């Protein structure tokens, strides 16, 4: 399935309506006379098998490409992968459109992106959340451990049981990077406050922990979370895409724990029923990165040097506490603000085997 958008507001509205409906055909491209449009330039995005509305990096990447369409007057299109077998054919479909720029999302598209880029040296590619070598491939990655460190410190600070949890969709660097930072943030809280808050679901030293083996099956997220709640965890960080919605459902049912979301602000992107349980989210500013990279490509300034989002450049951070703000004391909020500054100036270094370099 493809989702098409252009710089004209009416086309953008049609594109948004299309992917929300999920079953209609893509609208025809308009033939307007917008003098600001870059009619000679177009971009394509290929999602991983999580689909477009994953409330995660596919959705954020598409929002970035839509913003680029609006800002630069270009035509963009999302090619939605439903299963793993769609991935390589969809990248090939993107190439065959003749567009100058192809954006792919996630580790599942590593091989397809590398192969297509090698066969099409005149097309510029970018891939979100993966390092792929190539003269015409720009990795877009995020040092989420930095923001997860803040989230872990926060989780330890609000926990009433002294137990917090995390689990992933798969044991992969973009996932474990969150988990490493989270564990280290809890450990730092313990060092500062003389406490012994425990993390279940991840052992940084052994790089082993709890994984669902899936990024789409919400029932797996629910059962995994229920097990952690049974062990006393009262703050849960799922790093598992749509599977995390199962975690939210389990927490909402129990009513005695908080959720930390990833990639985008879960308070804004998850169903409204989950808002009261969202403590914060570990953010990746994929949208701004995509807009900047597309803009530079249009200007003829494409580079294969990786974009690495950090606290310093605004590529990562944590979201507001929203409805859970009463759980966060002024002292704890101030400590987190200081930690952010300490990470940015190098006073504290957050490390992980998965840290992007």
Overall geometric form: globular
Which structural class should the secondary elements be placed in? Answer: alpha/beta
Tell me the number of strands: 15
Which stretches are low in confidence, meaning pLDDT under 50 for 5 or more residues running? 6-35
Strand content: 15-25%
Query: Biggest sheet: strands, sense, closure?
Result: 7 strands, mixed
Would you list the SSEs in sequence order as H and E? EHEHEHEHEEHEHEEEHEHEHEHEEH
- Strand numbers in spatial order across the main sheet: 1-3-2-4-5-6-14
User: What is the end-to-end distance?
Assistant: 35 Å
Oligomeric composition of the shown chains: single chain
Supply Rg: 20 Å
Number of helices: 11
The helix content, as a percent range, equals 25-40%
Q: Name the average pLDDT.
A: 90
Task: Describe the model.
With 357 residues, the protein is an alpha/beta fold. It has helices spanning 9-21, 57-72, 87-96, 110-119, 144-158, 173-193, 218-230, 244-254, 266-269, 286-298, 330-345; strands spanning 2-5, 42-46, 75-79, 101-105, 124-128, 137-142, 163-168, 198-200, 202-203, 208-209, 235-239, 258-263, 278-284, 307-309, 316-318. Helix 3 runs parallel beside helix 4 (110-119). Residues 6-35 have low confidence and may be disordered.
